[in-house]
Amino acid sequence: MKRSLFLTLVAILGFLFGGMLFLAPAKAVEGFGVASSPESILFFRIMGSMILAAGLLNLLVRKEGDSNALKAVLIFNIVGHGLTMIADIGGVASGTLQFSKIAVGQVNHLFIGIGSLVYLMKMKKMG
User: Fold this and answer.
1) What is the pLDDT of residues 54-106, one digit of tens each?
2) Angstrom distances, CA of residue 4 to CA of 10, 70, 74, 116, 124
């Protein structure tokens, strides 16, 4: 898959997921099996805004050649999705989240994290 297509797909996933969290946070809270409260709804909306911004960032660099800016975005994807997976797994281990409610998200985190790592490793060395 071309890197530009991968980054476009990452952007679309960010827009879909971030849009859901931002525009329908009560549904997202319910979908994750988290107790609904004004605080959880606000938190999901804030999370959605950041995911939307990350999606836009990936869209903006999709046609970028090998550069330090693209390298930074790919590292951001790897670290962000890796840490989120760790947090989600911690939520399952503590009993706060059910794996069945976060499984699709874990697949997305793996797709974006591993894909970003592959494209990062294919980049020319930056000086």
Assistant:
1) 999 999 999 999 999 999 999 999 999 999 999 999 999 999 999 999 999 99
2) 10, 11, 12, 11, 16
Helix 3-23 / helix 38-60 crossing angle, nearest 10 deg: 160
The pair of structure tokens assigned to 15 is: 């827009």
List pLDDT tens digits, range 7-59. 999 999 999 999 999 999 999 999 999 889 999 999 999 999 999 999 999 99
By CB neighbour count within 10 A (0-12 exposed, 13-18 middle, 19+ buried), where does 119 fall?
buried
Residue carrying the six token digits 């670290």 = 79
Q: How far apart are CA 38 and CA 48, in angstroms?
A: 15
Long-range contacts of 70-74 (CB under 8 A, 24+ apart): 70/123, 71/120, 71/123, 71/126, 73/7, 74/116, 74/117, 74/119, 74/120, 74/123
